Amino acid sequence: MATLKFLCDTKRCIECNGCVTACKNENASALEWGINRRRVVTINDGKQGEASISVACMHCDDAPCMAVCPANCFYKTEDGLVLHNKDTCIGCGYCLYACPFGAPQFPKSGAFGARGKMDKCTFCAGGPEENHSEAEMKKYGSNRIAEGKLPMCAELCATKSLLAGDADVVSAIFRERVAYRGAKNAAWG
Amino acid sequence: MNKLFKHLGVAFALLFSAVCFANGGEQAVAQASDAQMWAQLKDGAVGYTASKSEFHGQAINTYDLRVLDLRADWLAPALMAALFGMIAIFIVFIKINGISKLHHGFSGKMVYRWSKADVAIHWLGAIPCLLLILTGLVLLAGRFFIQPYLGEGVWAGLVNGAKQVHDVLAIPFMIGWLLMTVLWAKNQMPKMYDIKWFMVVGGYINFGPFKGKHPDAGFANAGEKLWFWAFAIFGLVISVSGMLLLFPNLFEPSRNLSLLALILHGVSAIIICAFSIVHIFMATAMSEGGMECMVSGYCDENWATQHHNLWFDEIKANGTLKYKE
Q: What topology is assigned to B66-98+115-188+219-296 in CATH?
């Protein structure tokens, strides 16, 4: 089975926020106001060393959110995606504290702005409901993986900075790019 | 003249090499900045983002990864042990040791010990405390010890119910904790005779060298004082950490502070839970006549002289001794 991953090539990211818009549009049925499953972060903005990177759930191998969830609502798909069951989620926010990437988000609902059910990037793979059912659309958004397609954010990235797919394929593409760029230390990590 | 040309030549050569060095340096800076950029991101650099969501300016948060497994590996089993382990130990202890009987039976004369307000704030804290322990157990250890035996729907209902009850009952618990800590502290100050009390385990051991001992105790005995101050301190820790977790919009804690609060909340819960079990066993099963104190506020005279002799002598001497009508 493939292990699906995102990779953002910061040398190509131009902070157009196309991935953010694509995600919002594709998953509009599930997104409450103010929820951004994906965002672009620019460090050293306007200074030397400016760089932009598109960030969402990175679907970790050993996911911190899964480790801390009291309701145990997360599960891993056979493609290595970290998805969650909103019917089991209790909105405690522990996954937000544990996530290195700030991916989990909570609509404010209930008294004193208590957190609602957590929402995060699904790699456009929906949730535990039946594929393409109304419940899945409403809770989790689109399910492009079930259609054999990749996430909308990466598919619509104008500079092909944001890559999504099998980890081996994605990293091979990136490595080739780095090799052609010819610069030492141009790779991440 | 020849010398001058020589000097100019050297100067030109130096200038050229300096430019070369400068160019080389720039390239090095450009390359280093890539490594720097990743180092910055890994170190938790905060940048600009159009998203208005919490913590979204930071691409990667940094923290000690060990905190993630702490709850699963240590705190969850420890809380199970603090509840069920302590109950098991106490049942075995009472089976072997027997309970602490009143040597002269009940006198029937009831001595005033607690006001109605004291009894009320005790239960204001105590009832939520019991339910917070049980719901907290579901939230901390449920996924390891309970979920495997339930269907997804039943588990979801249970853990959601536990969360709601835990959130709501936190408020009366904190009020009860604050009132008890502030109003009762004056009777809980450590005294020299408390050390002797611990030396004979309070006189509750019915065999061996401790048998038949009756150490001195004031209004509160040394064990009760230990429980009081443990409750005061860890009640404070559990209340503050709980408030951070319950009202993130009000206090806006960082993610790392929230993780720390989560750990401290669990540690405090384990300590308070273990003490609570001891406290409940002492009051209900172990100490004959003890429970009456928190029902009517009065205790039997024989219970007072046996367990709190110094207090009874004191109120008898200063005339504050009051019997139930």
A: Fumarate Reductase Cytochrome B subunit (1.20.950)
